[in-house]
Design goal:
The chain is of the alpha+beta class and about 150 residues long. The chain has one domain: Cation efflux protein, cytoplasmic domain (Alpha-Beta Plaits, 2-Layer Sandwich), CATH 3.30.70.1350. The protein contains five helices and six strands. Strands 3, 4, 5 and 6 form a four-stranded mixed sheet that branches. A hairpin with a 2-residue loop joins strand 4 and strand 5. Helix 2 crosses helix 4.
Length: about 150
């Protein structure tokens, strides 16, 4: 990690360059939350984000989709901790979805911001069963039509 300067016999530390590389750049928690939100939205099995009452009202009033909804970010110098609140699709394997979210969020945040992601905590807030209900309704409608034809 260190090189010796042959003229003066001094040891020059190269690690200092790495530490000062992002000096003076402050990345907002909201920016990291949006990056994480986009990464989570790309994972199959996620029905949506659970953002609470206030987030839902602001989304309705503004008419814009809040990409940071359901994501809490805590940044300490060069390290980030991210909490993700999701609703999963019925029938998906929750540990697989959570693992995929952790990998994608960590990779996206680290590559785009240079921050080290220490933790990505996935909190499953619910299960979306709308698909099951629509399939049951379709089956019932199909059965009724078949009975009428006989």
């Amino acid at each position: 990690m260190s090189e010796e300067n042959k003229e003066n016999g001094e040891i020059v530390e190269l690690e200092e360059e790495i530490k000062t590389e992002n000096e003076g750049i402050k990345i907002s928690n909201d920016v990291v939350a949006v990056i994480a939100g986009v990464a989570v939205s790309e994972v199959s099995g996620v029905a949506g984000m659970s953002g609470g009452f206030a987030g839902g009202i602001s989304e309705v009033l503004s008419g814009k989709k809040n990409l940071a909804k359901g994501i809490k970010v805590d940044i300490n110098e060069t390290k980030a901790k991210i909490d993700v609140n999701i609703i999963v699709e019925y029938g998906t394997r929750i540990p697989d979805v959570a693992f995929e979210i952790q990998n994608r969020v960590k990779k996206a945040v680290e590559s785009m911001t240079g921050l080290e992601v220490e933790e990505v905590n996935v909190h499953v807030q619910g299960v979306n069963t709308d698909i099951v209900k629509s399939e049951e309704n379709a089956d019932e409608t199909g059965e009724n039509n078949n009975n009428n034809e006989n």
